[in-house]
Design brief:
By secondary structure, the protein is mainly β. Helices cover 0% and strands 36% of the residues. The protein is globular, with a radius of gyration of 15 Å. The two termini are 29 Å apart.
Length: 95
């Protein structure tokens, strides 16, 4: 199935959460925080300004990004979990 986000929305796939702490303590699934780092899977064409001109997206497919903690809408497609967020909910690109 192919998903094409609309306007300034971005389809993200979460990067696996850490299962152990730096000191070696193994975390259960319930104790793990929601991951804030994700990989961009698909991007929309961009939002339009007041003049109808499309503002191009800053992120591209394959970028690793940091999102706001509780942003976006979670969706399940073909057994995998994804998140759809607005580009403004993306805080940074991880290089």
């Amino acid at each position: 199935m192919t998903v094409k986000p609309l306007t300034d929305r971005v389809l993200l796939k979460a990067v696996e959460a850490e299962e152990t702490t730096k000191s070696g303590i193994i975390l259960t699934a319930a104790a793990q925080e929601k991951p804030q780092i994700a990989e961009v899977v698909a991007v929309g064409e961009g939002a339009k300004n007041e003049d109808g001109v499309i503002i191009p997206m800053t992120v591209k497919v394959g970028d690793r990004v940091i999102t706001s903690k509780y942003s976006g809408t979670e969706v399940k497609l073909d057994g995998a979990e994804y998140m759809i967020v607005r580009e403004s909910d993306i805080l940074a690109i991880v290089e």
